[in-house]
Amino acid sequence: MSFIKRYLLPRLLQYFLVIFVGITVVFIVPRLTPVDPVQEMINTITQRGAYMDPEAIEQLRQSMKEMYGLEGTVFSQYISLWRRLIIGDFGPSLSQFPTPVVKLIGISLPWTLGLMLVTTLLSWIIGNILGGIAGYFSSSRWSAAIERFMMVLRPIPYYIFALILLLVFGYVIPIFPIAGGTSIGLKIQFSWKVIADLLRHAILPALSMILLGMAGWFQTMRLVMSNIVREDYVMYARAGGLRDTKIAFNYVIKNAMLPQVTGLALSLGQIFGGAMVTEMVFSYPGIGGLLYTAINAGDYNLIMGITMFSILGIATGALLVDLLYPLFDPRIRYR
Amino acid sequence: MAVLRELLRDGKFTFAFTVMSILIILAILSFFSPYDMSIWNVVPRDMPPSAEYILGTNSKGQDVFWEMTVAIKNSLIMAVIAAFFSRLIAIAVGLLAGFKGGMTDRTLMSINDSFIVLPVLPILILLGAILKERLNMIVLGLILAIFGWAWDARLIRSQTLSLREREFTNTAMLSGQKVYELIFKEYLPFVIPIVSATAINNMFWAVGMEVTMAILGLSNLTIPTLGTMMHWAISYQAMLLGYWWWIATPVVVSVLLFVSLYLLSVSVSQYLDPRTRIQRIGTAKVVK
Amino acid sequence: MSVLNTEGLKAYYIIDVLGEKRYVRAVDDVDLEIRENEIYGIAGESGCGKTTLIKTLFGMVEPPLNVMDGKVKYKMNAEYADIFAMDNKRMREIRWEYISYIPQGSMSVLNPVQKVRYSFEHFIKAHRRIRNKEEEFIKPVERHLQALGLPVQILDSYPHQLSGGMRQRVTVALATVLQPKIIIADEPTTALDVVMQRGVIQLLKDVQSSLKNTIIMVTHDMGIHANIADRIGIMYAGKMIEEASTEEIFGNPLHPYTQYLIGSLPKIGDKSYKTSAPGAPPSLINPPEGCRFYPRCDRATDECKAAIPKLVEIEPGHKAACFLYSGVKEDE
Ligand SMILES: Nc1ncnc2c1ncn2[C@@H]1O[C@H](COP(=O)(O)OP(=O)(O)OP(=O)(O)O)[C@@H](O)[C@H]1O
Ligand SMILES: [Mg+2]
């Protein structure tokens, strides 16, 4: 009972708050600018060369305003935004009219989900183990060597790192495909050939995300570690003559993982941003790739839909991680 | 100055400090640029580096070296704006939450955590798509400030919480000192060091965001920045056409900027951490 | 017969004050001889270096603490071994088998994310090979707990589910499970209420009388020393200033500081407050020249300011470091 009240309920509240803050920011900030999004969209459409007579443009403007709930007071606009979010209606894509935005997102989602799930887990696990060991044996030479390597890796932005990988593996040592999610014309069905093809295409994007992510986790873990090794229970285990490896795994890493789990929930948004950029560089058919086409096509509606959708998705992901946390921390499970 | 001398004992810091100084000098040089960067075709196009054009020229007919100096200046100004304003928000929220505690603290920290979790990139892309050319460096800096304060507000809050436990808070409260006086006189001196270390982090993040936005074509492309330089080089296929000096310049400069900002923040926060200080001295060989 | 002795032990903290190296002389030239089958109490006010001394005796010296000089010797197999000359492996082996440690603030020495059972398992497995878990681990541990009067169920609890007193007793059980020759306990009762204190003290006493081993116990509570210790050493500002049997310390304290310490104890039937030494303990970074106690001592002479009195035997079995009784100086 107290578990629900002390842990579960606050997490759920936080979940709704993230969504609330995110959607509100998306609503307010564009309105602080002197730009009229409907006018922008009409500009985009007319710029693309399609001739439209003024009357038709006026009609389009009117129907768009209705669709986006730009009619009425600011407050009723805000309410209508929420209504559309709840019924999952982000309107049609402008560049691929009249396909609904939701449908486009639905097609791309599995790619991003798969890529993010695998890379986040792998980089989290590898980064934490390496960082844990390096932090525990922080005075050894190889620990300092790994630390230096990660220190150079960490600050490289996703975009530039992906670009470097693309250059190296796409042109210098061309062993992996550099674009797309599958070979062209491949029919998705369950067979080893298809799976192998999927994996081959995922390797470069995944590699760039895993390496950069790992560097981040490595460094925070090393830092957390340097605090935990000073905790009383670690000092005591050492006083008791326990073996270093035992202390490292059972006493230090198990405790040091706790802030890292919380950290995972908090960094999902950043990881998602990294995934977007990586997908753009490798023309991966996920949400990031979709966002890229939307940017190039000036498809404001699709961008808006993806933004709102990612707020929902990231909040949900963070909630899921938070719900896993009690598995690691008995202090929350048993009171 | 004593602080600087001690910091310079750290090899990381010395390297980062040197690189940063060079970049700042380059940024200052931009004021002496012989060319106006908004005008195209002022020099012959696509010239490789030479005595006349140190870093060559680009397909827009501009001198890459001078374009670079302006780009460094603009990127740094944007980063400083983002860092400065996000620090203001972070200090206000962090101090208020830590000092008031209770319901205020919980509410502010929930909002704070929401900002941490939010996927910033899609939101920025949305804003960029709406604003486009109107997205100059000042506006971008301000927008980034709105999204860049939350981690630090958390840090400042926990620092404030631990300061509250200390003696002088009670003494000051009992002796009837005004709250804001207490905050400014007693808390701020402790908070400023954290703020300065994380400010560097924040600049680093802001420059990265700018580069990403510009490469995607979502900022004012007529303003030279590290990001827009890369954007033009990429969209003119500089790499395929072999104009490596054009694309390499912004890439190398930004990698240098990233690495030096990052190393600065690492060594400054190491310097500020009292425990590592003791360790540094403590492990020094004992002379018997 | 001593089981543990020190010679001219100096352990300083090296710290950085505004870029300058400073030495905190927490243990400064201490000679000890701890005997077999005794409870040796160490007393002194807060900050005088008790914990530092104990850590050094246990060989747990990590930066910023440094051993500047002197030796700590354990008697093993009828020989004395200098622990600072041992390699890490040997050191690891003798811990818990030969000497164990109950640290100060031991509320937080149990790993918060594992059940108490695993603490026992890890500590035992670090020193003993266990082939048959039931026979060689579970049963002996349960017997040990029962002998100490602790419920066996605590093995399946997480530390946060136990009360402070129970956690402290678990620590005592953990420190004694391998029946070491020496047990070092640092303020094992400080954070507990009076009833709990009595329980833990009784537990330590029982352990000692059944194992016939040596306990070195630190506390600033003289009442507990009176109750448990055979001999007591009084520490002041990093130095041992008096050492004698418990009866002698309480009945015939020699050093003025010890007299203050004993005089400040409330006695049965005596309602008046006793004087404690006026003034504050000295800084260990810049201790006073000469006897470290002279600024607070009402019997100080010029000699006390000029030289440091050496801890010497005044009466049989009773040592003190004070010029009132002996003129022997420490050679600097
Ligand atoms: N890590 C440290 N770094 C620097 N100085 C220290 C450190 N730990 C302890 N000291 C100093 O060493 C001196 C002795 O400390 P110690 O903990 O041994 O005292 P103590 O007698 O055990 O006190 P208490 O009764 O409060 O436990 C104190 O002046 C203390 O300030
Ligand atoms: Mg102590």
Describe the structure.
The complex is a heterotrimer of chains A (335), B (288) and C (332). Chain A has 335 residues and is mainly alpha-helical. Chain A has a domain at 101-298: MetI-like (MetI-like fold, Orthogonal Bundle). Chain A contains 13 helices and no strands. Chain A has helices at 2-32, 37-47, 54-68, 74-86, 101-136, 141-153, 158-172, 192-228, 232-239, 244-281, 287-297, 300-328, 330-333. In chain A, helix 5 (101-136) runs antiparallel to helix 10 (244-281), helix 7 crosses helix 8 (192-228) and helix 8 (192-228) crosses helix 10 (244-281). The mean pLDDT of chain A is 84. Chain B is mostly helical and 288 residues long. Chain B is built from twelve helices and no strands. Chain C has a single domain, classed as Rossmann fold, CATH 3.40.50.300. In chain C, helix 5 runs parallel beside helix 6. Chain C contains ten helices and twelve strands. Chain C has helices at 50-58, 88-94, 116-125, 133-147, 164-176, 194-211, 222-228, 246-251, 256-263, 302-306; strands spanning 2-17, 20-35, 39-43, 65-76, 79-82, 99-102, 182-186, 214-218, 231-236, 239-245, 312-315, 318-320. In chain C, a hairpin with a 2-residue loop joins strand 9 (231-236) and strand 10 (239-245). With 332 residues, chain C is an alpha/beta fold. The chains are: A mainly alpha (335), B mainly alpha (288), C alpha/beta (332). Chains in contact: A-B, A-C, B-C. The interface between A and B is large, with 52 and 40 residues. Bound molecules: adenosine-5'-triphosphate (ATP) and magnesium ion. Residues 13, 15, 24, 26, 44, 46-52, 64, 104, 220, 284 of chain C line the site of adenosine-5'-triphosphate.
